[in-house]
Specification:
Largest sheet: 9 strands, mixed
CATH class of the largest domain: Alpha Beta
CATH topology of the largest domain: FAD/NAD(P)-binding domain
Distance between the termini: 35 Å
Radius of gyration: 21 Å
Strand content: 25-35%
Length: 377
């Protein structure tokens, strides 16, 4: 054996799997087709939202709690600043589809929050142009994650513990045999006791054929807009936000460069032919809807896109991730299919995947992510 465990893909989740596996084993090798935190992966775009108040039918709250603690552990291990918590706003219609569903989710899990009236939102956060029926939920533990910093910190910390990292090495085949798993890049091969596939949008071709009908690569785009008074959009004055009002939706982060904010239409991912070929250019319709929505939702933000880009991720048909043993396998494990929503919980799912692959106790709340759920479909 070349090592006990291999991690294929060192991006948003794979880097965290490597970090967590290096805590449990001194024999870990990570494979990355390009370089960790390369800008064409789902890591791109500088930041991701972190929230404890989260609208979703799946039981994410325990994982979010674990992730919060693990982000702080990563900061301690690496010396880097990863999670920046200045609170977060969820804004929407009083009786619309978003806020009532969010509050039901909060009641189930007991997340700390504050319900704000339209008047309170307008007084505290005048940057938002509100509709008459808008209210908000304030999450004091919300904030944003620095994606590049997090990935690079996790990889470096794993290497400090003895993990080996092979950059510019694309694994294109995985074959199980009696006592192990063989990985190949077409020219070289390696053998391991077990492998964890965490290649994001590129994972599909490495997964069992039984799962492929339930997966597709998708394109996610991000946009940035200039602000008129940067002092009004600093993290302490303009926290992260998610806003869904009627058929309009937007999410974003405060200004980190002193001139722009990230503000992106929510829920606009589209299937792509392949992760490597996503169109990085916005369409005219995407540009115009983004400009209109920003113009409607803010004062002090210029509704002109000054930066945009697109990134791939692997989606599942039920939008829940694939974390656990591959169907019918005891040596191949999955940590992929996060459907555009994985980074906030990446540290927690990294630990779940590493523990499962190394035969330690799995997280009791991660059963909904088992790849076996598609076995009978």
């Amino acid at each position: 054996m070349d090592a006990q465990i291999a991690v294929v893909g060192l991006g948003s989740v794979g880097s965290m799997v490597l970090w967590q596996a290096s805590r449990l084993s001194s024999s870990v090798v990570g494979f990355e087709a390009a370089a960790p935190a390369h800008p064409r992966s789902a890591v791109g775009g500088d930041t991701r939202l972190f929230r404890m108040t989260y609208r979703d039918p799946h039981p994410y709250y325990p994982l979010l709690t674990d992730a919060h603690n693990l982000w702080r552990e990563l900061e301690k291990d690496s010396g880097d600043s990863v999670l920046h918590q200045h609170g977060g706003l969820s804004i929407g219609d009083t009786n619309g589809a978003y806020i009532p569903a969010l509050l039901r989710s909060i009641r189930r899990c007991g997340a700390t929050h504050e319900l704000l009236t339209r008047t309170q939102v307008a007084e505290r956060y005048p940057q938002h142009t509100l509709y008459d029926d808008d209210i908000a939920v304030f999450d004091p533990y919300a904030g944003f994650l620095r994606t590049d910093t997090a990935v690079l910190a996790a990889v470096r910390t794993a290497q400090d513990r003895g993990a080996e990292v092979l950059r510019n090495c694309r694994v294109n085949s995985i074959r199980e045999f009696g006592d192990g798993v063989e990985l190949s890049d077409g020219e070289r091969s390696w053998t391991f006791e077990r492998v964890i596939i965490a290649g994001g949008g590129w994972s599909g071709e490495l997964l069992p054929s039984s799962l492929r009908p339930h997966l597709y690569p998708a394109r996610i785009y991000l946009t940035w807009f200039p602000v008129q008074d940067p002092a009004q959009f600093t993290p302490d004055r303009f926290p992260i936000f998610v806003r869904i009002s009627g058929d309009q939706s937007l999410y974003g982060t405060p200004s980190l460069d002193g001139s722009t904010i990230k503000a992106t239409l929510d829920g606009r991912s589209q299937p792509a032919d392949h992760a490597s070929t996503v169109d990085r250019t916005l369409t005219h319709a995407e540009t115009e809807e983004s400009r209109r929505t920003v113009g409607d939702f803010f004062s002090g933000v210029v509704p002109e896109i000054v930066r945009s880009d697109s990134y791939p991720d692997l989606y599942t048909t039920d939008r829940a991730p694939l974390v656990g043993p591959a169907p019918g396998s005891s040596r191949t494990f999955l940590a992929t299919g996060f459907s555009g929503a994985g980074f906030k919980m990446a540290a927690a799912f990294g630990r779940v995947a590493a523990e499962q692959a190394l035969d330690t106790a799995p997280h009791p709340e991660a059963g909904f992510a088992s790849p076996d759920r598609f076995a009978s479909r």
